[in-house]
Amino acid sequence: MSKTITLTYREALKTAIREALQKDERVFLMGEDVGHYGGAFAVSKGLLKEFGPERIMDVPLSESGFTGAGIGAALAGMRPIVEIMTVNFSLLAMDQIFNNAATLLHMSGGQLNVPVVIRMGCGIGRQLAAQHSHSWEPFYAHVPGINVLAVGTHEDARGMLLSALESPDPVIIFEYTSMLNLEGDIPENAGAVDIRKAKIRREGKDLSLITYGTGVYKSLEAAEILEREGIDVEVVDLRVLRPLDEETFLASVAKTHRALLVEDAWRSVSISSEVSARIMEKAFFELDLPVERLCGVEVPIPYPKHLEDASVPQVQDIVDRVRKILRP
Amino acid sequence: MISFKMPSLGADMEDGTLVEWRKQPGDLLKRGDIIADVDTQKGLIEIEFFGDGVLEKQLVEEGHKVPVGTVLALIRPTGDAGELEMPEAAPKAKQEAVPTEPPTQEKKITSPPVAEEKGKRIKISPLARKIAEMQQVDISQVIGTGPEGAIVKADIEKCLVEMKMAPEKEVVDKPAEVHQQEPLQQSAIPESEAIRRAVAAAMSRSNQDIPHYYLEKRMDMSKAMAWLKEANKERTVQQRLLPVALFIKAVAKALDDVPDLNAVWENGLQRKNEINIGFVVSLRTGGIMVPAILNADTLSIDAIMACLNDIIPRARAFKLRSSELSQSTFTITSIGEGGGDKVFGVIYPPQVGIVGFGEIREEAVVHEGMIGIKPIVDVTLAADHRATDGLVGGKFMAALNKYLQNPASL
Asked: Are both A204 and A119 inside the same structural domain?
């Protein structure tokens, strides 16, 4: 067994970027304030000094422009990491992502791969209010032609970027702003991770908590509380939001016969809508109770702390709902 | 406790005569064991049991004729249900409980499982329904504890434990009823005559009840025949594959693509999960039998051929098992050589379709602007217009043709 190290989610992300830059000369980071300022969330702090302005590139405030430049660089043989500060601003780059990155392989008759990696901060931060707190993973997971990853653990913060850079096709990575300061343990030699499969983060037999992103640690914490009451839940981290690894969560449901889907995104037309539909389509006869969901409340994310907290599922909400499901 | 009932071996069967018990009280039963021989219009059928358990009590004597659905025996389940944790006091409780149990309990298992159809819809989780069907639990007698009073898995398990603890209860009135049945006189009727009557009943019902629609498609067999020729080069005479094995597999795959035809019409269209292909076998003495090739979609061509080689002689000798007669979900009729260019089937109720293969023969065929000679087969589909429309039938025929054009994919 190798030793483990303790580090923050932010440090895990930074370590991954640094390793990617060291390993492959074609890799460079571009984004708003990633250089001199060290990144809006300080993820790239110090990298400009280490790698120079050719590889840590500050760009103008034009999401459509610099994302398009990143796609162009990928077409020309580079391996760009485009940082879009938060998913909230990525709407300005959606035309580039959906109409170019996602379609060019198809439009070129299979000739042009677009190996671009686009990272974005996602979810609520710390009282950043409605325009800076969206959970818009479902928009991206809707579109064929791109791969969509959700970084729910330190292990994935350390490893997903490296695997994404190996992909010949565009990869969107959602990083969770609220988790940046969270400390966690990973093996000292942690590195690239599988970005095709969901992962069982905790085995259990009574119910499957199927989640991603910020929901993973919350679900694990809820599972510990429930364990003390004799309720044994399984926690499935979807990790890959497109293409969904349904095999893993269907197998989990086939084992526990009950599912609660947890996510910060708004309930309507969300990731959990899709997961729920697939369970119904492919594991109907394994279900002993209706699939239930805990999603973000369908309002613009409020500014006041207590309302912000109330707008997305918290550990206690998960615990309460599981109790209600299993002990009606 | 499981109530083992006289099975229905086809829509036309109303009753059967218990000819011989193959298992005695106390015998351990494994899944697939033959419990009894039952005489029907289709001849002597071996009745199988699909579970694990111990034969607790025989309720019908040999030689008696009883209606479909009559409880023949009580079986105490083992295996999954047997592993349920039972309170330590269970055996004692059982002894004490029997004499003091109120008589209403007797109805618990012997009441026919039709309550659901007659009364209001029973809320039950999909998983609980699946388990109830496997363990033959009458869900109309189960009290649900799930959301909105729905029956969940735990309720079925509880019911199974209770059934195990009260084995003597359900026997009381049934046997009396059974003994009133007259002993069968069916042996007086020649077998061929009985079969004729069964076919007559089923086909009359089909033509009266089912509005058939028909599709016909000529399919090119050159690739299939070439594939068979090549495949048979490596096989011994006994192992040789016949076109019909390809037909069965292709039909099974096409049904997988168009599941609305792999169904029954009973209070609406009900799709079947398994694809069990009934195959019409004509009997030398006249009449037909339709044994099923179970899960044909999952079998290799060789396995289907082996199955046919096993099942056809047994069908002709009236030695089929209950599962082979009762579980087909779709039917194939193949007219064979010389009989006819096309055959238009009559649906076997409650199925919703039958496909007919005519004789494979050479014809002048126009292909890409040229006339050539190719082996062809005329394939017909007769389907229930209550259940599906021509579009579904057309999709099925297209899928079937696709598979026959690509025999290696089968």
From this structure: no
Q: Do A286 and B127 lie within an 8 Å CB cutoff?
A: yes
> Is the same domain home to A134 and A233?
no
Cβ contact B130–A284 (<8 Å): no
- Is the same domain home to A307 and A222? yes
Asked if A288 lies within 8 A of B130 by C-beta distance, the reply is no
pLDDT higher than 90, residue A44: yes
Q: Nearest chain A Cα to B130, which residue?
A: A285
**Cβ-nearest to A328 among B129, B130, B147:** B147
Question: How does residue A186 score in pLDDT terms, banded at 50, 70 and 90?
Answer: very high
Asked if residue A298 is part of any domain, the answer here is: yes
Q: What is the pLDDT of residues B310-339, one digit of tens each?
A: 888 888 877 777 777 778 899 999 887 777
- Complex prediction ipTM: 0.70
When pLDDT is cut at 50, 70 and 90, the band that residue A246 belongs to is very high
User: Are residues A180 and A224 located together in one domain of the fold?
Assistant: no
Residue A242 resides in a domain = yes
* Domain assignment present for A63: yes
Q: Is A132 a catalytic residue?
A: yes
Q: Do B125 and A287 touch (CB under 8 A)?
A: yes
- Which of A180-189, B148-157, B324-333: highest mean pLDDT? A180-189
Please say if A142 is a catalytic residue. Answer: no
3-state SS of chain A? CCCEEEEEHHHHHHHHHHHHHHHCCCEEEEECCCCCCCCCCCCCCCHHHHHCCCCEEECCCCHHHHHHHHHHHHHCCCEEEEEEEEHHHHHHHHHHHHHHHCCHHHHCCCCCCCCCEEEEEECCCCCCCHHHCCCCHHHHHCCCCCEEEECCCHHHHHHHHHHHHHCCCCEEEEEEHHHCCCEEEEECCCCCCCCCCCEEEECCCCEEEEECCCHHHHHHHHHHHHHCCCCCEEEEECCEEECCCHHHHHHHHHHHCCEEEEEEEECCCCHHHHHHHHHHHHHHHHCCCCCEEEEECCCCCCCCHHHHHHCCCCHHHHHHHHHHHHCC
Residue B96: pLDDT above 70? no
State whether residue B158 sits within 8 Å of chain A by CB: no
Q: Are A289 and B130 a contacting pair at CB < 8 A?
A: no
B134 at A interface, C-beta within 8 A: no
Instruction: Inform me whether the C-beta atom of residue B295 falls under 8 Å from chain A C-beta atoms.
Output: no
Identify the structural domains of chain B with CATH numbers, from first to last. 2-187 (2.40.50.100), 191-409 (3.30.559.10)
User: What is the mean predicted confidence (pLDDT) over A51-61?
Assistant: 96
Q: Which of A11, A19, A63, A234 is catalytic?
A: A63
Domain of residue A40: give its range: 4-187
